[in-house]
Structures are given as structure tokens and as C-alpha cells.
Please model this.
Amino acid sequence: MNITLLDGGMGQELLARSSAKPTGLWSTQFLLDAPELIHAVHRDYFLAGADIATANSYALHRDRLQPFGIEDRFADLHRQACQLAVSARDEHGSGLVAGALGPTGWSYRPDLAPLADEAAELFAEIARLQDPYVDLLLCETMSSVDQARGAAMGASVVNKPIWLAVSVDDEDGTKLRSGEPVTAILPLIEEFNLAALLVNCSVPEAVDQALPLLAGHGVPLGAYANGFVKIAEEFMKTDATVAELDKRANLGPDVYADFAAGWIAQGATIVGGCCEVGPAHIAELARRFKSG
Model:
């Protein structure tokens, strides 16, 4: 089986490599303060064996920039995020670049997201900005059907493959974080001609539960879990930072790769990592699952 390797998490890896304290801008802060560090993380994921660099644009939404007085940098920051990924890919000599479209409102809070038609306009602006640079658009951590529909609708304005990644309940991976059955996402495959369907930014055990329910529907299946203990209630507030989230102590590269082996057995052909999953984890995935 030919396995495509995604990269790992960006925001938490940047924080781990710096002395900076988390801010409400999260990974966007490094586009302002240390873009060279972003390039280095992309480079290290490629060196570890990743086939795809995901642009550092997950948190780049106007409503995230506005409280910090930098909404006017929106377009330039998207271009910069994409250019850093492209530069690392070109330096490596192979690979693809995925444009990251993170959730509107707040991660894991689909109740705060605008309805699909309104959200689609926001995502369409991002898709058009990223289109000249990326090979595909990765809609990440979508936590309800409506949120996912808005992202896919917006991404559809450009002619790039759309990969949709949904986040499931950490306690019950058969459900989206909205409480809807994870299978409720399946009609979006045909509606938006999705090129891949993935589960992301949930604990590995929840991913285990979700994947069998999504397999066998005519598109490549993927998975990239996070390494948080859980999504703490304190983080669910929109003024929170990732300082509210704790890294899991028992998810080293070997253990994570064991989970990935299970996902591949369940039908996944795309695997990688999300928050707190770093280059060492991707290197172990490459050692086990990449041919040649």
C-alpha cells in the first residue's frame, strides 16, 4: 500500500523551539516574529520523510487578527505562510504544499462559527489568496457538518483538490465535536467532490473509533491525531491560549506509530500528526510505512 505522509503539528512545535509564551495569535505570532523558524520546521518535516508541507495559515482569520490590530496584514500573512512552505519544499526538491484552512470562530467550537453560506465567503477569500502557491487545500479541524460545508464550499471557488479533515469527540469518536454522528459528514464527499476525507486534532483513541465509519466511500482516507491530554474546558473560551492545554506524556514516536498502523489497517492511506506530534514522530512513520 502506498502511504502519503503528512507533516506534524506546526504551532506547538514552534512554541517548543522558542522561548515565546503563547498568545491569542498562536502560530501566526511566528509569521510576525520568527518566519525563519517556520521555514525550519517545514524543512525538518521534509527531512523526516513527510510528503506534504502544510502552510502555517490555520489560525489566519480576520477575526483572529482584528483584536491585535493587524487585520490589514491578512492577505500578506497568507501569502507569507504559503511562500515559506513552498520555499522549504523547493529546497527539499520534492513534495506538495497544502494550504491550511482552519475553522472559523474557534477551534472545537462549531457553535461559534458563522453559518455555511457566510463562512464560505470567508474561506473563499483564503482559497483565492493561497491558490497561486498550493497544490491542495486542507480544511482542518471541522467540528460540525455545517462548519465543514462552509469550508468546502469556500474552497471550491478555486480549482484545487479539497481535503476535508474533521475533528471528533475525544470521548466518543463516533461523533463530531458538535455531537452529530461522524457519518453525517459523508454526503459532503459527493457534494463537493472531495479528494480526501480525514480525521484530525482528536486523541488517537477517538480516531480509532471514527475511521471505520468513514472507510469505503470512494475517496482516500486519512488520519492525524493530536498529542494533547484532552481539550480542557478553559481552552474553549475565545480569549484562551494553548497554555491551557497539556501535552500527553505517553505518546512518543513508537506509540504514535502503533496507532497509525491501526489506522492504515482500517483503510487510511494518508497519515501524519497534529498538535504536539513532531518531526521525530513523522520520522518513525516514514521508517515504518514509506516504501523505497
